[in-house]
Amino acid sequence: MVIGTQKNRSAKPSVSNLRTGFVPEIQGLRTIALLLVATFHVWFSRVSGGVDIFLLISAYLMTRSLTARAEVGNLTRPVSFLIRKFARLMPLSYAVALLTLVAAFLLTRVTAWPELTGDATAALSYTENFRLQAQTADYFAADRSLATPYQHYWSLAIQGQVFVIWAVVHFLVERIARGLKASIRWMLLVIFSLIFAGSLAWSVWYTEADQSLAYFDTAARLWEFAAGSLLALVQPWINLPLWLRSVMGWIGLLGVVSCGFLLPVESTFPGYAALWPVVSASLIILSADATPTRFGPDRFLASRVLERISGYTFALYLVHWPVLVYTLRINSTPEAGIRLGTLTLLISAVVSVVLVHIVERPTATWSKRGKTVTNRRRPRIQLRSLVVVVASALIGATAISAAATYSTRAVAAYHAAIEQADYSRLGANAPGNVPDLPEFLPAGTDSNNDWGIVSSNCVDIDVGLCTDSGSGSSAAERSILLVGNSHIAQLHALFDLTAGNQGDWRVRTQIATDCNYSPSFMPDYPECSELWRNAEDFIVSEQPDMVVILGTKSSTDGETLLDLMPGWVEWIKEVSPETVVVVVRDNPRFETSPLSCAARYGWDDPACQFDYTYSEDEELQQTFELSGALWVDLNPDICPDNVCPPALGGVVTYLDDNHLTKTFVYTLAGEFADQISPRVPWWPVNPYGDSPDN
Questions:
Q1: 22: closest CA among 310, 252, 371, 250?
Q2: Is 70 exceeded by the pLDDT of residue 139?
Q3: Cα angle vertex 286, ends 284, 292, to 5°?
Q4: Are strands 478-484 and 546-550 parallel, antiparallel or unpaired?
Q5: 3-class DSSP assignment, residue 610
Q6: CA–CA distance from 361 to each of 157, 318, 566, 601 (Å)?
Q7: What is the CA radius of gyration of the chain?
Q8: Which residues contact 206 (CB under 8 A, 6 or more apart)?
Q9: Facing residues of 375 across strands?
Q10: What's the rounded Cα separation, in Å, for the pair 142 and 147?
Q11: Among candidates 55, 150, 41, which has minimal Cα distance to 94?
Q12: Which of 326, 343, 405, 544 stands 20 to 30 A from 591 (CA)?
């Protein structure tokens, strides 16, 4: 931020000039720091340490200005100071945040809109760091395309919070010092030294305990601001020879540039490792003086080029991240590379220049020309600055409210469309075409949570997970029991949908994680033993019409027969002869998630089309059928022509590397009926009910 102009660099400055004069080296340093942030994000997918320098500089300039004014009798007025400060920050930051939201509504799925509106709200309210903490966001994730386009607002949020804290600290200390007739500078030194020591200690501990949360923590960052304030307080007392200033300046500049390359920022910041950029920047600031050196970096840092660029760096910081995120998403890549990264930076630069000239500078010029209202009982308030702050807040709040209302209605309409979807024409029932849908069902992150069974409401079972759907009554017309592991749980959706269209049917699903019928395994897994005992008790007492189990267990290398299951099938037929036992073949598993692959590379990318080879062993089916069971193999519909795609017939197939989405399982009900209804008279030929043309 440019504060005044420095007319004469040749004369030795007085202490007063050092406190208040414009130091172009600092503008150059801030320009380099913010350029490092943008280029490291785009080209290297790393963190440069530039933000830490920016935080230091912001506190340095603030304390230098406020202290110098206080020492000549102009004590800090927090309200008027903060109005002026936010009048400079809000127009541009709000404009970028709202434009990013518009881009989000144009480029992202409907179900992501409420989350993005929440991100925008946090960005506008200077609370983005708290939101990222609550979401346990990974700031250092390699795939930037999956990040929120508002993630970089965390530093602006912390800066805004510290501006308020620092203004209050200056206000209180200055008045206490005046009452005690003590030195304002010395009292501030004591206070900021305590903040520095306490915050640094907390930062080191918190970084070791939970670095991902510490990174966004305001208290863990206060020491960086305190370092800048301490530097501003002691600098007027420091007088260094030219040769030492030159050496310090080069060491500092080398430290600033090399930090992101040499330090493991992703695992050590903001703890003690952040001292590297903070100390490096401090060396440059201490080496700055009105008298230029002969061989120091001050000539470069004070150059007209860096000074001109500095007028656009704040805009570049705000713009580059959303441009990067959406460029990566559009191109379905986790990293930009040289060409795409260069294009990203060029687009960001152009947008930044435009926004500076149509938003930032016009509002700044207009607000500075306003009158200041002075009243002994009230703060000195520049009316136009107040208008800028209030107008920005009103525009932001109105836009967010409208976006929230619009996104809520859009999501409700989307879910209504899902509820009314004709599953007989989607997914496995439409493998050769993509239905006319706005996006794959279920959309986006909904796929990650699209489980077939998500509750436990069986009053008589307190182990594992048990769901009674349909009538849930033992007097139901038909009773079906599914028992086993999570791959049985996902099939619950198929039976729940079918039962819902048939009247008084009861579907009970009992599962425990990774629990197959294996007496040798059960003693080490009491919950699994209890699961099968409960299932046996239910079969004996309720005599269900159907029991559904898995007959194989798949792996990334193939599948194995659950060799004890045929014997259990025979036991069921003995204790409940009329029960139909259905043995389902396990679905394929993969090394990586097809959904994650598609999110990264695209739905049609060959890398996301996983090969699957069916077993030709007819004895597998015969083994179960000889024991009295009906064999069902749904894998040809999950992986047509031996290829398992991330989406089929407009529906996402897998929610992770081995579980099917509930929505896709709905579409398997037709194939299940095709295989079962010829052998089970009471099973409906059309499980989807009486939909048109079915």
A1: 310
A2: no
A3: 80
A4: parallel
A5: strand
A6: 22, 16, 78, 40
A7: 33
A8: 213, 214, 217, 219, 220, 271
A9: 378
A10: 10
A11: 150
A12: 326
**pLDDT digits 0-9 by tens, 263-287:** 776 667 888 888 999 999 999 999 8
Supply the angle between the helices 78-107 and 113-124 in degrees, to the nearest 10.
160
* AA identity, residue 16: S
CA distances from 24 to 289, 298, 301 (A): 10, 9, 7
The answer to whether the CB of 228 falls within 8 A of the CB of 14 is no
Q: If you ran DSSP here, which 8-state letter would residue 4 be given?
A: S
Query: What percent of the chain lies above the pLDDT cut of 90?
Result: 45
Element spanning 483, H or E:
strand 478-484
Q: Where are the alpha helices (DSSP H) in 543-633?
A: 565-575, 594-601, 618-626
Instruction: Outline where 41-110 has alpha helix (H).
Output: 50-71, 78-107
* Angle of the 50-71 helix axis to the 222-234 helix axis, nearest 10: 50
Q: What pLDDT, on the 0 to 100 scale, is given for residue 14?
A: 42
Contact predicate 203/197, CB 8 Å: no
Residue 41 tokens, joined: 């994000």
pLDDT digits (tens, 9 = 90+) for 196-245: 999 999 999 999 998 888 999 999 999 999 999 999 999 988 888 888 98
Tell me the pLDDT tens digit for each residue of 507-538: 998 888 878 776 555 556 778 888 888 889 99
User: Tens of pLDDT along 587-645?
Assistant: 999 988 888 888 777 788 888 899 887 666 677 778 888 889 999 999 999 999 889 99
Give, as one character, the DSSP assignment of residue 10.
Answer: S
CA contacts within 13 A on the Cβ side of 212? 11
Give the DSSP letter string of 549-574: EE-EEEETTEEEE-TTHHHHHHHHHH
Identify which of 565, 550, 558 has the alpha carbon closest to the alpha carbon of residue 628: 565
Q: Provide the pairing of β-strand 465-470 with 478-484.
A: unpaired
φ and ψ of 604, to 5 deg: -100, 5
Q: In whole angstroms, what is the distance from residue 285 CA to residue 298 CA?
A: 10
CB 517 within 8 A of CB 564: yes
The DSSP output letter for 356 is I
10: number of CA atoms within 13 Å, CB side? 0
Computed over every residue of the chain, the mean pLDDT equals 85
Alpha-carbon distance values, 661 to 129, 444, 608, 625, 648 (Å): 33, 12, 17, 29, 12
Pull the structure tokens for residue 623.
Answer: 């083994």
- Sign of the C-alpha dihedral computed for residues 404, 409, 414 and 416 taken in this order: positive
What CA–CA distance (Å, rounded) separates 218 from 199? 9
Counting Cα atoms < 13 Å in the Cβ hemisphere of 415 gives 10
Model pTM score: 0.71
Strand 465-470 with 610-611, pairing: unpaired
Q: Give me the pLDDT at residue 475, please.
A: 76
Q: Which two three-digit tokens encode residue 188? A: 């501030």
In angstroms, the first-to-last Cα distance of the chain is 68
Top-confidence residue, 556 or 450: 556
β-strands 580-584, 546-550: how paired?
parallel
Structure tokens at 6: 């420095």
Residue 113 predicted with pLDDT over 60: yes
> Taking the mean position of all CA atoms in its chain, how far away is CA 106?
19
Question: Which token pair is 84?
Answer: 């002026």
Contact criterion met (CB below 8 Å) for 318 and 93: yes
CA 85 – CA 565 distance, rounded (Å): 72
| Close Cβ partners of 49 (under 8 Å, ≥ 6 residues apart) | 36, 256, 259, 260, 263, 265, 269, 274, 276, 277
Q: Looking at residue 473, what is its pLDDT? A: 66
For Cα atoms 221, 224, 228, give the angle at the middle one, nearest 5 degrees.
145
Q: What is the mean pLDDT of residues 349-373?
A: 87
**Chain CA centroid to CA 692, Å:** 42
Indicate if the pLDDT at residue 11 is higher than 70: no
